[in-house]
Amino acid sequence: RMKLDVDVLRYLSKDDFRVLTAVELGMRNHEIVPTELIDRIARLKHGGTYKVLKNLLKYKLLHHDSSKYDGFRLTYLGYDFLAIKTMVNKGVFVSVGRQIGVGKESDIFEVAREDGRVLAMKLHRLGRVSFRAVKTKRDYLRHRSSYNWLYLSRLAALKEFAFMKALETHGFPVPNAVEQNRHCVIMSLVQGFPLVQVRQLQNPETVFETIIGLVVRLAEHGLIHCDFNEFNIMIDDEEKITMIDFPQMVSVSHRNAQMYFDRDVECIFKFFRKRFNLSFQESIEDIDGSDEVGDEAGKPCFSAIERKSGFLDRDLSASGFTRKDEEDIQRFIEGGAEHDTDTISDSEGVDLVEDQDEVGTVDGDSSHLVEQNDGFESEGKDESCKVCESSESE
Ligand code: ADP
Ligand code: MG
């Protein structure tokens, strides 16, 4: 499993981060960033870039690829370090501790503030699983697939952060959203355990009702969790519930909303039936001789839930999460590896270009790495176009 050796952070110099940032910038329009381009963006004296590249390679922050032309790309670790460095510089936390969770598309660590308070850091890995499948299937997309994970993981983090903030505002039991940068979300550390690890409850009925109540209240606010199960519900010693993991949430106006809602509800019913032996009677309407196992009594009915309007748009855009972001990430999540990846890659390409005007994360963050060089950003962009054209025409 992924190891995050943050000690390496201490050995990395300003020049190291400068070159790492240069590769990140280059990856906006290059899957493999040509070495020459990195050198021109980083602008270190006396061929310093080449020495630094070797160092970054040694620490596995970059990957070297010379199949098409000589170049480098960021590894997950390299991207992690850029996010971590940025957060540490901002004073969000001072150290990274043990890994507390491994999801299929994330790694979760403890981090500590200066005052010793511990927070949780979620590093999103969207595209980690699926794009490998895509790669083998669709060979011609190979040259584009690698900055997909950068883009998608950042999008997942942005979405998670936006939803967590909005949900907290509306009084839902979620972690406190502290900060987001690139593919990284910092939130409060939830006490207790995922429900899946709990064998016994004092009041299983109460816990069950609380959880179903949450699903309903979410829908009233226009949202469906879409992955609401015993892995994403935390419970503490007082049997207090906290829900986590939001990148896949959808609006109740989604075309499959009913199905997602019913699936979330069914997951909870099934888990409590099996684990805590709660029994739910079949409702009268369903005893009509059909082969299907009938609906259980007490299951909330999606179409009967009264909506409180405006939740999504108003509150999410406050965190910078746009409708287009939602479309992009949803297209990926719903499509998975089977998905028509052309559309993803195309829309991503557009986004990468648009980002250069927005100058969100990367430009703002890298400023501390390059403060003595004002022409850094624009230069990087200009150079990248030239090199891009020249290397593509070969
Ligand atoms: P994934 O999307 O990969 O499933 P999750 O957000 O569900 O990621 O996190 C994976 C696991 O990490 C959770 O099941 C939980 O055990 C742990 N975890 C996540 N967030 C927190 C948190 N804020 N506090 C404590 N543990 C957490
Ligand atoms: Mg999860």
Automatic annotation (TrEMBL):
One of its GO terms (cellular component) is preribosome, small subunit precursor. The keyword Transferase applies. It is an enzyme of class 2 (transferase). Its EC number is 2.7.11.1. The keyword rRNA-binding does not apply. Residues 65-289 form the RIO kinase domain. Its cofactor is Mg(2+). GO terms for molecular function: ATP binding; metal ion binding; protein serine/threonine kinase activity. Keywords: ATP-binding, Kinase, Magnesium, Metal-binding, Nucleotide-binding, Serine/threonine-protein kinase, Transferase. It catalyses: L-seryl-[protein] + ATP = O-phospho-L-seryl-[protein] + ADP + H(+); L-threonyl-[protein] + ATP = O-phospho-L-threonyl-[protein] + ADP + H(+). It comes from the Eukaryota. One of its GO terms (biological process) is maturation of SSU-rRNA. Belongs to the protein kinase superfamily. RIO-type Ser/Thr kinase family. This is Serine/threonine-protein kinase RIO2. It comes from Psophocarpus tetragonolobus (Winged bean). The chain holds residues 13 to 406 of 475 of the full protein.
